[in-house]
What we know:
Elements: H1 10-18, H2 26-36, E1 41-44, H3 51-65, E2 76-79, H4 83-96, E3 104-107, H5 114-121, E4 126-129, H6 131-139, E5 150-153, H7 156-161, H8 165-173, E6 180-185, H9 190-199, E7 204-207, E8 218-224, H10 230-241, E9 246-249, H11 253-265, E10 270-273, H12 279-290, E11 296-299, H13 301-304, E12 314-317, H14 324-331, E13 341-347, H15 352-362, E14 368-369, H16 380-411
Parallel strand pairs: 1-6, 1-7, 2-4, 2-5, 3-4, 5-6, 8-13, 8-14, 9-11, 9-12, 10-11, 12-13
Amino acid sequence: MTFKSLGLSAPLLQAVQKKKYTVPSPIQEKAIPVILEGKDILASAQTGTGKTAGFTLPLLQRITEQSRWKRRPLRALVLTPTRELAAQVYENVQEYSLFTDIRSTVIFGGVNANPQIKTLKQGVDVLVATPGRLLDLHGQKALSLSKIEILVLDEADRMLDMGFLRDIKKIIGLLPAQRQNLLFSATFSKEIRALAHNILKDPVSVETAPENTAAERVEQQIYRVDKNRKTDLTAKLISEGDWHQVLVFTRTKHGANRLSKKLEKKGISSAAIHGDKSQNARTKALAGFKDNSIRVLVATDIAARGLDIPLLPHVINYELPNVPEDYVHRIGRTGRAGAEGEAISLVSLDEVEYLRGIEKLLGEKLPHNTAEGFELTETKESVKEAKEKAQQNRTRRKSRKTDGSLDSRKTGSKKRTFPKSRNGRVSSRR
Ligand code: AMP
């Protein structure tokens, strides 16, 4: 099978050639001809399968074929859950439309809207957007959706997980009734099926991998380890394995920051990426990770969706996700486009239930491994004790904050400490 035999036009074939893709991926093989025919599709595809080209190439072809507008109204809309995915899809749209006269742009929150509004005013055919910023700019009359011919919902499952259902419904209400709809999702919950039922007209189902199965090329391993030894084990695996591009997942934003700092202290260059980081910080961290100046990227699930890092060799689940499907998304970050990958999960005693959930979803037991000196010593009792202690500390800190610290500040009883310089004199911190 070649790209040409799928019916793609010369300018698009030229772009594909420039990207050095030799054969279409399975999702491209199945989706491209159906989209070219103008049909709606419901596609099951994980990131890393080439799904972006799978919808972008035929979408570009369709809007060039039917180019009848003098002024350029927005004609195709791609909705994505995250800023990173929006930026990535937009980059792809630009690359694939290089030899056409199609104009595209991207809009997402967290950055100044003015340049986005200015670009939209100049006339754009294809818009890639996150739902919030799209509605925001529509509310400001900076764009119109009344001439949209093709709608793409990319990573629809994640959009629902992130609470975008209402926004999506609002956006659909702003589109013309007559249009082509393409829905891509890695997993198919009841909610996704309901959304598909409402939006799609006689859709063709396109499936490339069985639902909810982990990527085949990824070697998965479990290390049972005490909670308080996870950082050391992470550092050991990275150092001894001489790994240079490692994506590490934590469950919380604080956890991501903490781990990133600890790894830095151990001499492993690292950056955290999550929803509280500014767009600039996220872009910088990702760029550093891609050019190998940052060895470890510590991310939360939401931030990691949409990261396009080709040939990512290692993923570590520092903590297991409490939603089993997120495990599938996480390990989908490795073993991309033909490359082999390794996904390691560090599982402490309190995460055993999560592991069971994941194994149930995958329909297989995951292989266990041990690292010398990191054998599990936790017991149910010790975990309970540690939890109680942590709770006590939290309560103590809270009560200190609400009354103690105020009093001590008033009376000046709380000691302020300054680092001592080498000659013993006290210096103030800047
Ligand atoms: P995606 O699933 O769209 O995020 O694509 C994953 C990666 O595969 C991206 O780096 C694409 O550039 C790459 N890719 C897409 N299609 C092909 C293809 N037919 N051959 C080789 N690589 C591809």
